[in-house]
Amino acid sequence: MNPSAHVTSVEGMADFQAALLTFTEKAKDALSSVDLELRRLLDWLADQAKHWQSEIRLAENAVFEAKTELTRKKMMKIGDRRPDTTDQEKSLRRTQDWLDHAQEKLGRTRHWQRAFPDAMLDYQGPARQLQFMLDAQVPRMNAYLNQKIEALEKYQERM
Questions:
Q1: Quick one: DSSP state of residue 5?
Q2: N or C: which end of the chain has fewer CB within 10 A?
Q3: Under 8 Å CB-to-CB from 53, ≥6 apart: which residues?
Q4: pLDDT tens, 112-122?
Q5: Contacts of 106 (CB under 8 A, 6+ apart)
Q6: Is the distance from CB of 21 to CB of 142 less than 8 angstroms?
C-alpha cells in the first residue's frame, strides 16, 4: 500500500505559523507590561502608605487642636452660663472622623502591602512557564512548522 496525501495548499499552515509568531510577540509584550505594572503597584502602595501616615499626623494635630479649643471654650464662663461649644464639638468630630479615615486607609494599605507579594508569587509561577514556552518551545515549534511546510511544498511540486 502506497501512503499518499492530497495536499492542495500549505497556506493554512503558513497562516497558523504567522498567527503563532504574532501571538508570541503579543504575549511577550503583555508579560513585560504586567511586570512593569506590578512594580508600579508596589511603588504606589509604598507611596500610599507614606501619604496616609502623613494624613494621620496632620489629623492627629488637628484633633489635638480641636480638643484644646473645646477645653478652652468650656473653661470660659459667661456669667453663670456655660458657653456654647457646639462649633468646637463639631470641629472635634470632623477631625476625629478625618483621623479615623486616615487610620483605616493606612490599615488597608498595609494589608495590601503584606498580601500583594503572595499574589505576585501566584502570578509569577504561571507567567514564568509561559515565558519559558515563548522563549524555548515556540522557536522549536516554528522550526518544526518550517520543516513541514517545506516538505509539503516539495511534495506538491512532485505531484
A1: -
A2: N
A3: 106
A4: 999 999 999 99
A5: 49, 52, 53, 55, 56
A6: yes
Q: What is the pLDDT of residue 4?
A: 58
Q: Residue 81, SS3?
A: strand
C-alpha Rg value of the chain to the nearest Å? 34
Q: Find cell 507567567 and name the residue.
A: 127
Listed in sequence order, the residues at least 6 apart from 113 whose beta carbon sits closer than 8 Å to its beta carbon are: 45, 46, 49
* Residue 24 contacts residue 146 (beta carbons within 8 Å): no
What mean pLDDT value characterizes the chain? Answer: 91
Give the rounded distance of the alpha carbon of 30 from its chain centre: 13
pLDDT over threshold 50, residue 7: yes
Q: Give the ranges where the chain is alpha helix by DSSP (H).
A: 11-75, 86-132, 138-158
pLDDT in tens, 13-56: 899 999 999 999 999 999 999 999 999 999 999 999 999 999 99
